[in-house]
Amino acid sequence: MLPPFTYLGLLGFIVFFFIVAPCFAKGHYARFALDLSLLSLLILSVYMCSNKKNYLIIALLLAAPALLRLFFPTTEVDEITLAFNILFLAFVVGVLLHLLFTTSKITLDVIYAALSVYFLIGVFYGLLFTLIECFFPGSFSLTQGIQNETFYGAYGQDLIYFSFITLTTSGYGDIVPLSQPAKFLSILEAVTGQLYLTVMIARLIGMHISQLER
Question: Where does the chain show beta strands of DSSP type E?
């Protein structure tokens, strides 16, 4: 059993990542600061999975490659790390969703976990968009290429931004998908965001009503 407020800590680290990323978008320490914030998020996510041995083993295997970027700062290593980070985030989202749909009692931890999932979905798609741009340059209407150190070192901040305006269906139009994979993935994310909010709100309300009736 995880200690209370574990999921609040996870949510806090996610918010911290969003605060740190734009502050260190440029400069000599940009890559290190962003890697450190992401590694902190990965470590806490691994800890969140530590209550089950199988979860812990999978989480460690998927999170470990993130350390490669600290010691081997090359484009090839970036691509490998990015792919593993995407798989890791997908795993963490799956673990949290399993918690949310198997628990029968609504608590603050459940609410924190639900909020964390929404943010993690946005980051997951942002990294996936970055990987698409890496292998299919020109997939998005960006003013700077994926090979730019600041841009790629920041895990594609522009594409994480694009991911969240897609997830929330804000649609500012300053970045648009151009390739077919990018377009269809954008559609999938927009649908995912709407379905998640609809289903999760219904789930939380249902649990709350059930608790009141007991």
Answer: none
- Residue-wise pLDDT tens digits, 167-195: 998 888 888 999 999 999 999 999 999 99
What is the DSSP code (8-state) at residue 66?
Answer: G
Q: Of how many residues is the chain composed?
A: 214
Report the distance separating Cα 16 and Cα 22, nearest Å.
Answer: 11
CA 78 to chain centre: 17
Residue 206 structure tokens: 């249902």
The amino acid present at 64, given as its one-letter code, is A
CA distance 30 to 10: 22
Tell me the whole-structure pTM to 2 decimals.
0.86
- Name the token pair of 144: 């700077």
pLDDT digits (tens, 9 = 90+) for 96-106: 898 888 888 88
